[in-house]
Inverse folding.
């Protein structure tokens, strides 16, 4: 069985001048240089590759978002042009981009043909079962969230397309200030609060600004009050913080990385609860 580097050469039909493996990614990903081109290779499960291809095409064709150009594809791999001239976005811009594609999705006449992912485990049960992991966390205001949040609370919200991994290593601006999005393997349809909560989770220093900015720019057809929306965004971010705290020790990470993640989650509790 040949390795990834041998496969890369076979797919390209030439021997690359440089192959750089990207670390800390679930899929096997590489930046590949040849004499005149630069590519991004991703090897993954067939379902994830199909989802990636679908997301690239759907966001470009229906949501007015620039996406990577596919060069080669196969059942378990995708090769796209490596984009050089991208710049990372500020968390506020990140939220504006998410609000933009959610609004375009609601207005679109072409619904996404992808799996749904909007079941919400009761957050109070989740927390109660795992209290011991949150000793030292500020949880004074938690009862408010626990009392109001459940599956029914989300029923006012529409289902929208969800990128599933919103942060500033996946969402950029081009040199012409157009949104550019990559990495669609977590694509689904979900409540709009999910993608925003993911953005907040990765940008806790700007969390309050993100929430206020998003809730001020929601489409009118969301048909939900600003306060209710804010509660649901905070609840979804809390859910992510709880899961991340519980799972961090199971991951194959350095102790320092685990402690950093838990400190960040503690910070979320302290800021919002």
């Amino acid at each position: 069985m040949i390795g990834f580097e041998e496969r890369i050469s076979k797919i390209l039909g030439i021997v690359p001048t440089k192959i750089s493996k990207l670390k800390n990614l679930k899929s096997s990903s590489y930046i590949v240089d040849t004499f005149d081109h630069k590519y991004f290779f991703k090897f993954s499960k067939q379902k994830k590759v199909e989802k990636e291809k679908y997301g690239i095409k759907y966001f470009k064709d229906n949501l007015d978002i620039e996406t990577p150009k596919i060069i080669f594809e196969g059942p378990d791999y995708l090769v796209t042009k490596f984009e050089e001239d991208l710049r990372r976005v500020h968390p506020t811009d990140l939220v504006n981009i998410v609000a933009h594609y959610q609004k375009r999705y609601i207005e679109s006449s072409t619904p996404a043909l992808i799996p749904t992912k909007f079941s919400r485990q009761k957050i109070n049960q989740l927390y109660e079962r795992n209290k011991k992991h949150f000793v030292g966390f500020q949880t004074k205001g938690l009862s408010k969230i626990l009392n109001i949040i459940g599956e029914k609370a989300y029923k006012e919200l529409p289902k929208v397309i969800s990128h599933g991994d919103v942060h500033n290593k996946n969402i950029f601006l081009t040199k012409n200030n157009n949104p550019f999005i990559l990495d669609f393997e977590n694509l689904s349809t979900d409540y709009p609060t999910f993608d925003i909560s993911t953005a907040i989770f990765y940008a806790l220093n700007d969390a309050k600004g993100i929430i206020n900015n998003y809730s001020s720019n929601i489409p009118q057809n969301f048909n939900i009050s600003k306060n209710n929306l804010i509660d649901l965004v905070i609840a979804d971010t809390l859910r992510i913080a709880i899961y991340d705290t519980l799972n961090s020790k199971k991951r194959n990470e350095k102790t320092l990385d685990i402690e950093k993640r838990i400190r960040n989650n503690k910070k979320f509790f302290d800021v919002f609860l």
